[in-house]
Amino acid sequence: MPKILITAAGSYGDIAPYTGLGARLRAAGHEVALATHDSYATLVRAAGLEFRRLPADPRTRHAAPTDTAGTQEAWDTAEPDRPSGPGGNRDLMRQAAAFIKQLGGGLADAVREDTGLLLLSATTAPLGHHLAEARGIPFLDLPLVPGAPTGDFAPVVSGGRSLGRWGNRAAGRLSLRIIDRLYADAARELRARLGLPPAAPRTVRRRAEAAGRPVLHGFSEVLVPRPTDWRPGLDVVGNWWPWHAPDAQLPTVVEDFLSAGPPPVFLGFGSMAGGEGERLSVLAAAALRRAKVRGILQSGWAGLSAGHTSADADLLTIGEVPHALLFPRMAAVVHHCGAGTAAAGVRAGVPTIPVPVTADQPFWAARLASLGVATAPIPFKELSGDHAVARLSHALTQATTAPARRDHARAAAHRLAAEDGAAKVLKAVTHLSETSPPAN
Description:
Blueprint: E1 3-7, H1 12-27, E2 32-36, H2 41-46, E3 50-53, H3 58-63, H4 69-78, H5 90-110, E4 115-120, H6 125-135, E5 139-141, H7 164-194, H8 201-210, E6 215-217, E7 234-236, H9 252-259, E8 265-267, H10 277-291, E9 295-298, E10 315-318, H11 323-326, E11 332-335, H12 339-348, E12 352-354, H13 361-371, H14 388-401, H15 403-417, H16 421-435
Parallel strand pairs: 1-2, 1-4, 2-3, 4-5, 6-7, 8-9, 8-11, 9-10, 11-12
């Protein structure tokens, strides 16, 4: 069997699904390494995978004194499924390009002589294709969100609003050109390092499209049905779930809190809202009290904490806890609607209050609402001002008291449980292993 290298870059939601996928491949007998940022080394190794380092760790940068909200947006912009819109901030584009340039060198270092197969996330694929070309290594693109143009919906960063079939496709093609621009300098340097002739990112991308290369998308058709106009080979296979130990349990303090009263509401923003922890904590506590529900705040990068509020026995602060263990115990979940968190809420069968911040999050928020498992989205920028507490409190009441919404959530969870996205990747990997010539 070939030795597999998975490459993924970005925040937790961009990395964690590949740990579960890697563990599944390892259980099938494959030797698997995952190249990503230092922040996730412990998670990678706990899943039984070899860790290889990638530079430009967004979490390290997020914590740096010079970091700004704009820098975080640049990391989001750097992902090919989260392109910047036309006329976007040039500084963000430059920051994103610099992030990508660092990734190029790191990816080249992560590929070893015995690497027999590359599995590429959306962020790393535009660079990984050059490595595959230079080393003669077969590869699979494994994005977590839809990226290919389609008439069925606009690019995921458009906020979920359709522009009509022609407009959706045109916007999708434009987003690909923006991605090509972001990766241009990094691709030029990487190809020179690898001894490859010059080729623009657009040229390399079109070669892969013309060859009909398979792309397996790690999300569920429960949320996004496969577009009707995608070419053969662009497949939606289902989610890959973050790894956690089979015997993992919730911390004792969480179990004690759950046992002390009715199911609470989860509230967290993942890698979003850096530096706004105190304001958001006070807001969340006030809304939970007004809605007469208990709450669990996940600190995340925002730094949410019950310590920012008056003493309240009905409010608990937690750190990182597997959503698969926590969400099914909730009355509802309030989150930023990253792709992985949105799917985790559906999997748990509980209603969602979407508070999208940026990038693809409005897209997923709109999908949850259209599925009937979520309240109307509350854009994060609107969680401020005099009416923010009332608005969040009203959404909490809607989510926790409407039987129809919970019924929709349970029905969606039942459909999701029938899927096995990792098994479909394993099948594709087996096929490639049997049909691809040895690497150079």
